[in-house]
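Appendix B, Record 12. Input sequence as logged:
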Amino acid sequence: MDVLFIGSEAIPYIKTGGLGDVLGALPKALAKEGVNTAVILPLYKSVRENFSNGLEQIAEFGTPLSWRKQYTGIFKEYRDGVGYYFIDNQQYFNRDGYYGYFDDGERFAYFCMAALEAINYIDFKPQILHLSDWQTALVPVYLKTFYGGRPDYDCLKTVFTIHNIEYQGKFDLRILGDIFGIDKRFQGLVEYENCINLLKGAIVACDKLTTVSPEYAWEIQHPFFGRGLDYIIRENSHKLSGILNGIDDNLFNPKKDKEIFLKYDLKSIENKKKNKQELQCCMGLPVDEDVFIVAMITRLTHHKGIDLVMSCFDELMGENIQFVLLAAGDKHYENFFTEKERAYDDRVACLKGFSESLARKIYAGADIFLMPSISEPCGLAQMIASKYGTITVVRETGGLKNTIEAYNPETGKGNGVTFKQINALDMLGAVRRAIELLDNDEHRMKLITNAFKSDFSWKKGAKGYIKIYNELGVGKQ
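Logged structural output:
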């Protein structure tokens, strides 16, 4: 079975969020299960600067896009048993960032078309194309339209994964032909609520539809979570599956992690205290073993539950805690935490942006990791925090519900603390429960042990995808 992933990011090359983690880990996990995998990515400026020594150019051709024919170069690198191919076009990808440009629609329409054209030039002949999010949503659409009727493409099957339905790729209908190269007779495929909606097009056109947790697959069929596409999801529910993401156990492992202050495992859990002390030092907080560090690493957007934290922040700081935040996003959220850092100058530390190295140090040094999300398709942070022995407090939604079980002091089962309602006081109560449990030596060690031993590997998820691939009739494992 030969599966080609087409995506806009994958570690170690590009990462802005969970998509990068997934496309970096899943192809490797599938390869271990006997599936031949490869990945196509844009050759961004940062990739060229940081990985050019390992890249080999293997092809050069022109990619048609509406009235244009754009240069395309293909570069290749093998890494961890997976072939990585990069689409080179400096007009579209030689930029300091990855997303958020005025011409993102054209950039990723080109990427989708170039990736399909590249199949004729690379030394990997896929049976299945596995796609993710709106940036690759035009691949199944183009297969049904531009490439329809071509025997070399008609045999290809598509699996499309929704990582977050919040981001749909919406554009004005007037650019349908000029930018996307889609004939008006196919307008209905991508039109939704009087605009182009690329995610809708992929949902309709793909052969199999997946999302990143079983709970989220159920949630997005309902208006509150579906973000306007719940009707389309329900219409296509016959091809929908929820497969839980995993994390790379070798990458996120405090026993091996070179980024943290002192390595440790469950047998040397006392070393976690050293990480806490060093985290307090580097964040400019007083070193105090008895105070509890509550941490968040997040995007500052509404669906991450930031409003819940804001509405009871002063009450939260009434507890014996220090608050550490690594985040960036909406300005009014950033301004709020900047003000609170001033108000609680020796107890609150907030850093804007994202640093992988600092994130690892926070996972290792914090006592409690807070994820009060309104919606969370899967979430990886709660898994990573757990593997570092940091207790997660989460709202029961999406993948958070599928990965974190509320700890029961009577049975000793459960790997975190949860709350159900979108309610700040419920969240505050959950944090207080976590503090009480960590203040009790017996419950603290049992809870930390349960978190450490949680199985968040990709093995089960990889087998779930293999089952989906097999249902497409292209091979058996």
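The radius of gyration is 23 Å.
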